[in-house]
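Hi P.,

Sorry for the delay on this. The queue was packed all week, but I finally got your sequence through. Input first:
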Amino acid sequence: MIYFTKEFLKDELDLPFRAIHDEIMDSNRWSTQYEIVFEHEGKFYLTHYSVGATEQQDESPWEYEDRVGCTEVELKEVVVKQWVVKQ
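Then the structure:
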């Protein structure tokens, strides 16, 4: 795991807005949690952040973290089986 400062992620890499992948993973009454993948110096990293779920919740990405843990990832094709309605 590699750590970046939240200022570097937000100010230098313009995250989460310039993320390659940005997906909602969970939500509750107060926050929405996201998973993102971003590129830095030819490598790709995965991390998470949360924001306020409504305009009444004042929470910005990585608001409560000074350093953000990121895991290096790679894009691979994955075959998935799932149950579907029989025609």
